[in-house]
Amino acid sequence: MPNYSEKPTIIFDMDGTLLDLAYDDFIWNHQLPLRHAATHDCSLEQSKQTLLQFYQQYNHTLNWYSSQFWTNKVGVDTLALQKEFKHKVALRTGCLELLQYLKQHGYACWIATNADREGLKFKLEHTQIAAYFDVIVSSESIGYPKEDLRFWQKLQALHPFPIKSSYFIDDTEKVLAAAEKFGIQHLISIAQPSSLAAVRTESAYPMLTDLSDLMVMLKHAEDLKIYA
Ligand SMILES: [Mg+2]
Q1: Among residues 87, 110, 133, which one ends one of the domains?
Q2: Global pTM value
Q3: Ligand 1 center to residue 224 CA distance, Å?
Q4: Which end of the chain is less crowded, N or C, counting CB atoms within 10 A of the terminal residue's CB?
């Protein structure tokens, strides 16, 4: 019998890792410019430029991930906009298969997301995957984005986990770099966070094409332990 207590904790990012980033791209890069242009009576091109400027200014900060921040900043209710199109929120290929496998084999699964609490809530309600996870954390609750080392320090203080043996899967390079600095050793990226965007060819970390490929990696790691 395998000793389940020795199974590593698997920590997942949400958007672009478990869920298709095509939804977020649709909201923030297609719908919001349209709504912004209509609200402020300007051209779509002007709206895109204004938003791009803001996006560049706030990327990788906690504000970037806050619907409330963007609602105040651009004058469009961005949470209502996201909920209006929640039917477009979709799991990435292999997601359910992987989560079912991890549950059946006794792995502890966590979500560590930069999505704000409201965004996290409606996405989990829509996709019905919350039951697969032991811990679900939004960086809004932690007070720092995952790109910041302090996110990891605070997460560890609130929910202790074995740093060296845990796996962390995320589609954002800067987030993986912060987790690496914190000491997590099994770091994995995503080859195609959005089903509508090109497959990435480069990452400092191994990349998953299909989420279920992680099962093969974990089986291999277990075999190495058993036969060591
Ligand atoms: Mg992500």
Answers
A1: 87
A2: 0.94
A3: 30
A4: N
39 CA from centroid of ligand 1 (Å): 29
* 3-state SS string for the chain: CCCHHHCCEEEECCECCCECCHHHHHHHHHHHHHHHHHHHCCCHHHHHHHHHHHHHHHCCCCHHHCHHHHHHHHCCCHHHHHHHCHHHCCECCCHHHHHHHHHHCCCEEEEEECCCHHHHHHHHHHHCCHHHCCEEEEHHHHCCCCCCHHHHHHHHHHCCCCCCCCEEECCCHHHHHHHHHHCCCEEEEECCCCCCCCCCCCCCCCEECCCCHHHHHHHHHHHHHHCC
- Cα(218) to centroid of ligand 1, in Å? 21
Q: Same structural domain for residues 47 and 104?
A: no
Could you report the per-residue pLDDT of 103-162, keeping only the tens digit for each?
Answer: 999 999 999 999 999 999 999 999 999 999 999 999 999 999 999 999 999 999 999 999
Ligand 1 centroid, distance to 193 Cα (angstroms): 8
